[in-house]
């Protein structure tokens, strides 16, 4: 299959929508990462997403809508708390897990009775959904296990020859995937996957908000988890990622200087100085910048043939928690504690 690279023009958007209507796969930009889209209601098309990615069948897909009026046809009920959050955070990087309607097949929901729904803010994503005229199921457009793509080139690197088209919308703003939440009851928001929208952001609108423990620790493959994606190894480049929990930069530098070999790299904060004799890349000082850069740097490190990457540890509050979580998942929760 020849994968077409499409641009953000009226003509190419119309072509992309036509491909979606024909049941084919089109990767497209969202504000978080690139998604690999198909009509969420078409079983065969959705199955083709799992095949193209090499994704386990029990890991459900997020369904994307362009307008709040599409929500009723996808979910059975919208609790008042979900409506409040939709009003504040949509369009944007928030996915809500709600009871699904029958038009969403089991293959899309990974066999669950619920579906994750999101209204993206990226104008290209919204326009593609609108003119396709259907809800679009779209996981991140990477091969399963690899870092999510934040440019059209990343998608091509992973998916060339496997999908019909990639719609190029430039580099993604947010850089990590959406915040995924479900509702334990009418007053409780349960964060399944942290994203740019943080626990602190949601707190003013809900009586109780908490983060699932699988965000902080490895869950065994046979454990029952609220969100199936939590148990799989994820986001990982070829290089071995090793987060270093150091009390300060000095101790980080000492450790790395003693352990660096050929093909060892460091991923530092922007404000950190270079380390003599060790190749260094930087990934921002705060959560939003680190989120924007993290996966981009992971793919860059693979292009540089890095073998071991020592990474400065992000914070665990606010949007920083999304970066912490992706880093932990990339390292398999292995941390060097100094
Ligand atoms: P990705 O498509 O790669 O961004 O992954 C989607 C994430 O959303 C995975 O971690 C899924 O487990 C989670 N997710 C999607 N739908 C549901 C659902 N119905 N219930 C729980 N988690 C979900
Ligand atoms: Mg993914």
What features would you highlight for this structure?
338 residues, alpha/beta, DHBP synthase, Rossmann fold, eleven-stranded mixed beta sheet, five-stranded parallel beta sheet, globular, binds adenosine monophosphate
Describe this structure in words.
There is one protein chain. By secondary structure, the protein is α/β, with parallel strands linked by helices. The chain folds into two domains: 4-215, DHBP synthase; 240-337, 3-Layer(aba) Sandwich (Rossmann fold), CATH 3.40.50. Helix content is 30%, strand content 20%. The protein has helices at residues 10-21, 43-53, 71-74, 80-89, 106-109, 123-132, 152-159, 199-202, 249-259, 287-303, 320-330; strands at residues 4-6, 26-28, 35-39, 62-64, 94-99, 114-118, 136-137, 165-167, 179-185, 188-193, 208-211, 240-245, 264-268, 279-282, 308-312, 336-337. An eleven-stranded mixed sheet has the order 1-8-2-3-7-4-6-5-9-10-11, with helices on both faces. A hairpin with a 6-residue loop joins strand 2 (26-28) and strand 3. The termini are far apart. The site of adenosine monophosphate has 19 residues, from strand 6 and strand 10.
Topology (elements, then pairings):
Elements (H helix, E strand, L loop, with lengths): L3 E3 L3 H12 L4 E3 L6 E5 L3 H11 L8 E3 L6 H4 L5 H10 L4 E6 L6 H4 L4 E5 L4 H10 L3 E2 L14 H8 L5 E3 L11 E7 L2 E6 L5 H4 L5 E4 L28 E6 L3 H11 L4 E5 L10 E4 L4 H17 L4 E5 L7 H11 L5 E2 L1
Parallel strand pairs: 1-8, 2-8, 4-6, 5-9, 10-11, 12-15, 12-16, 13-14, 13-15
Antiparallel strand pairs: 2-3, 3-7, 4-7, 5-6, 9-10
Bound molecules: adenosine monophosphate (AMP) and magnesium ion.
């Amino acid at each position: 299959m020849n994968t077409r690279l499409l641009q953000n023009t009226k003509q190419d958007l119309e072509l992309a929508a036509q491909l979606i209507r024909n049941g084919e796969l089109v990767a497209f930009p969202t504000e978080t990462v690139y998604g690999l889209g198909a009509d969420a209601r078409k079983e065969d098309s959705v199955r083709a997403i799992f095949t193209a990615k090499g994704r386990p069948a029990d890991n459900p897909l997020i369904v994307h809508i362009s307008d709040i009026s599409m929500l009723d046809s996808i979910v059975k009920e919208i609790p008042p708390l979900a409506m409040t959050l939709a009003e504040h955070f949509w369009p944007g990087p928030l996915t809500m897990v709600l009871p699904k309607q029958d038009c969403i097949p089991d293959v899309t929901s990974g066999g669950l009775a619920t579906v994750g729904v999101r209204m993206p803010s990226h104008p290209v994503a919204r326009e593609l959904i609108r003119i396709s005229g259907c809800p679009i199921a779209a996981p991140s457009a990477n091969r399963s296990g690899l870092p999510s793509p934040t440019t059209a080139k990343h998608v091509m690197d992973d998916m060339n020859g496997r999908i019909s088209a990639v719609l190029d919308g430039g580099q993604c703003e947010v850089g990590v995937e959406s915040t995924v939440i479900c509702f334990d009851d009418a007053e409780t928001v349960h964060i399944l996957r942290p994203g740019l929208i943080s626990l602190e952001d949601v707190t003013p609108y809900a009586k109780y908000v908490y983060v699932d423990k699988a965000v902080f620790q490895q869950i065994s493959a046979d454990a029952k988890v609220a969100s199936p994606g939590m148990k799989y190894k994820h986001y990982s480049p070829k290089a071995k990622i090793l987060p270093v929990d150091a009390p300060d930069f000095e101790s980080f530098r000492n450790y790395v200087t003693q352990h660096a070999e050929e093909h060892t790299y460091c991923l530092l904060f922007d404000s950190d100085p270079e380390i003599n004799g060790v190749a260094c890349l930087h990934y921002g000082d705060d959560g939003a910048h680190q989120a924007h850069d993290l996966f981009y740097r992971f793919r860059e490190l693979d292009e540089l043939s890095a073998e071991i990457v020592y990474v400065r540890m992000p914070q665990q509050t606010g949007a920083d928690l999304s970066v912490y979580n992706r880093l932990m998942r990339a390292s398999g929760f292995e941390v060097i504690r100094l």
